[in-house]
Amino acid sequence: MDYTTLISADQLQALVASDRPLMVFDCSFDLMHPDAGDQHFAQAHIPGAVRADLDRHLSAKGDLKAASGGRHPLPPREAFALWLGSIGFANDMQAVVYDRQGVNYCGRLWWMLKWAGHERAAVLNGGMPAWYAAGGVVTSGQGTPHPPHDFVLQPERATLVSAQQVLERLDSDRQSLIDARAEPRFRGEVEPLDPVAGHIPGALNRPFGANIDDDGLFKPAVVLRAELIELLDGRDPATVVHHCGSGVTAVPNILAMEIAGLGRQALFAGSWSEWCSDLARPVAKG
User: Fold this and answer.
1) Within a domain: 62
2) Residue 38 maps to which CATH number?
């Protein structure tokens, strides 16, 4: 069985025991303390897991060939494929990604793998806390290197949208924007990270944490579907473009819509940090 959205801790334990081609990625991170992810990994991680750091591996800061703008620009697909191959990831592998921050960061790698054409990628539902709760074993240290392998890019299975494309469709019924940032940031009351406060005009707001229940797991599909349909209020799910502050926390909303049976929508990876970098682009508040 291939896992393409979520995988439970019990299912991952069974997958590890099956000896199927598998690579597990620890994507733990903390925006305010960038070294925290490495520290957590060194203290405890799922055996065999590979470190995937938002800044070092999943972003291309300062790269003129970056695939997007914003605070966490996407690396070119070709560069991403080279990194995957360098850590031993192959096209026949099942990928499982996790973090310790409520799918705040691991969704980035899940989306990037789809973008690279690799469909066998799943998020560990509940992350590291769920692994502990299921009695999963952990190990410490820097991790075990895997022999390099060739990873071959396939046709994209995820859609990337640029700031210009968002702007061109701003008043069109062909685009429905969903912003995953917290409500105060969306309304423009506070802005701790970017130079301008507010949101893209016409955007809807669904903070990414709204997809998670009190146990730290994604809400059931039927609940997610009802909430998202209510949010869209008649808009076609196929027109949705997801964004957030820098294209990272928007992904849990993409994943939630897929779990809910509403398809896989586009990502504006540059998100608010790229949008507000050009003062000619319109800004809304409230």
Assistant:
1) yes
2) 3.40.250.10
